Structure formats: C-alpha cells, structure tokens
Amino acid sequence: MIKSSILWLHKWLGIITGIIVFILSITGCIYTFQDELKLWAYPEKYFIAPVDSSLPPLPLSTLLHNAQHSLDKGQKISRVDLYPAKDRTWVFRAMKTDETAFGHWNYFRYYKRVFINPYTGKVQHIENTKTEFFQLVLQLHLNLLLGKKYGHALVSWSTALFIVILLSGIVLWWPKKWKGKNLRRSFWVDTKVKWKRLNHDLHNVIGFYSLFIALAFAITGLAFAFPGFKKTYIATFNLFQQEATSKTLAVPTPIPLAYEKFQDNALHYSLKNYPQAEMLSIRLKKETEQEVDIQIRRYEKRSGVFNWLYFDRKEASLKQIKSGDNLRFGDKLGSLNYDIHTGSIGGLGTKIIAFIASLFCASLPITGYIIWLNKSKKTKKKKGYQHNVNKYC
C-alpha cells in the first residue's frame, strides 16, 4: 500500500515536471562547459596579441571611459571582469532588467558586454549579450525564457519537486531481494531483453547511478531559487564551526597613490599583490561611496576560491581582506554553491562528471514518459478485452 502510494506520487510528479526537468538538464549540460566553449567560439572577443609582460594595463578609469562611450545613451557599465593574462581582453558589462516583465526579450531592457584591449584602450568588440547563445541557454535554464517573475517560479518549484521524485525513486528502485536476477537488474542493464523492459531498466539503473549528483544539482539549485533556503542551510552548518578567521585589519594598509582616481589605485594594488590571480571582478560604485571592493579569483573558472579586498576611499587604505579559505563551514558551502552546481568545483574532471550526470537526468523524464505511455496502452487493451468478453458472454 505504501509503495503503491509512492509510485503514484513518483509518476504524477514526473509527468507534471518532466518537460521542465528535461529542459533544465539539457541546458545545464550545455552550460557546464560554457567557459571553455566561449573562448573557443569567440576568440575575437576574448583574445588579443600577447604583449610584453612588463607592460602595465591602462588605468581602469580610462578603459571605463572608452567602454561607456561605446554604448548607447542611457546604458551604464556596472561591472568589470579583468584578466591579468597578457593575451586577454577585459570585459565591461552593462545590464538593466525589468523584474516584472513577461518573456526574455522584455526581461532584459538591455544587456551589453564591451571587450577592450587593456593595453591600448581599443574597443575590440561590443556584444549584445541579450541574444548571445550561452546567455540564452542560461536564461532558459533559470526561467525558461519567460522572465524572472513567471519562469523563475516554475523552475524553482519543479526543482523542489524533482528532489521528491529522486527520493521516491530510490524507494521504488530498492530490490525486494538482494540476490539473483532482480539484484542484477538494479545495477546493470541487460541489452538482450525486449525494448520495453530495456527502457524500464534504463530508467531504474540511470536513476540510481545519478541519484547523489542529481540531488547535489537540485539542492544547489534550490539555493539559487530560494534565498531563504540558502540562508537557513548556511546558518545551520555554521553552527558546527567557530567564527571565521578573516577579520578587519588591525591597522589599515595604506596603498600607493599613483593615479588620480582612487579605484585605479585600488586595482593597481590588487594586480601587483595578487600576481597569481586569473581573474578579478569589480562591481562599480559611485565615487561618493567610501568603500571600494574587488574580488580576486585564483582560478578563472571557479568562483568559490577567492579573496575580497575592501578599500577605504577616504583613508586611501586597504581595511579588510575576506578569504574563501577562512570562512566558516556554512559560509564556505554557500560560496561554493555555484561551483558545485556547475561541476567546476574540481576542475575539468568534475565538469565531465557533471556533464554526464546532466545527460542522465535529461534521460529520466524521457524513459519515465515511455513507461507511463506503455502502461497506459496496456491498461486500455485490458479494458478493451474485458469489454469484448462481457459483450459476447
């Protein structure tokens, strides 16, 4: 009785969310390697002829001026992604959204990326990111291209229901006897059986082997979908550890003032003192704001290995360093949420695993729908046969 109820729940939740789960899995699969694929697909945007290692980049304010003047009136740069490698452009982002709009094209009022040679100041390319392929894949993954207000809710609750489907699936998968033919079918697919049996076994076996990674995808997805959920699990895991060791510096560190603009000086200090960094990121603030913060990423393709530098504009000093290595366990887990979700946490190896697991997740709704259709046809045939028997008896 209990197992039949779980089967009913598993079936109908799968039918309701199957198409969305398939879309999320396929788009997640594609997006897993988006960092690598972008560099391969758009070399004219991301690369320049290598320059002498001793040549410093132009001041950020100069590059920002060039980027801003390359955009249409009313479009404003809000973020800069910088790459210290001598053969890379710097990327200046300008974006404005309408959170209440329906549809992708209305959700983004504008989204541009300006690629600039940091050593000459030349604008190398202006990308309409709103129509860029990988951005479309991402928005399909985040909100089904329906806009945040409508699509986000569908994706969020489908992800939550997917967790229920996975947990109910492991109950249905559990072998009655841990020996013989039934046990083998739980762990391995016999390709010699009829296709209906093969499809059923594929659903069971793939569901089992992808369970834990699929749960990791779903739970980290919930952290993006429901900020309250993320705060709760961060706070819960923080209970198991002492306070973080990263603190405000006892004595703020003065920084050299080589440029007129303070943000130029802060960036110059960051590049000089973190030569191993593969990427830096700056969320631009008004010059009237006292604090300037810069994120230092050790690895370009991993957001969870970082240092945040907090500068005081008024005192012209570095006042705080926040390292990802020194966070409490819950905060650390939260900072790694994106890396876990995309599979980038362990580099190329975990990305390949995430790619395969995403394909497995995409296959589950397909094999599940086929099982449902086959059983529906079988039920109809039985009803038709019973009707004929009653008619002629």
Automatic annotation (TrEMBL):
Instruction: Work out whether the entry's keyword set contains Transmembrane helix.
Output: yes
TM ranges are 12-33, 154-175, 206-229, 352-373
Under InterPro entries, the record lists:
PepSY-ass_TM
Q: Could you list this entry's UniProt keywords, alphabetically sorted.
A: Membrane, Transmembrane, Transmembrane helix
As recorded in UniProt, coiled-coil segments are: none
Asked if the keyword Transmembrane belongs to this entry, the reply reads: yes
- Indicate what this protein is called per its UniProt record: Putative iron-regulated membrane protein
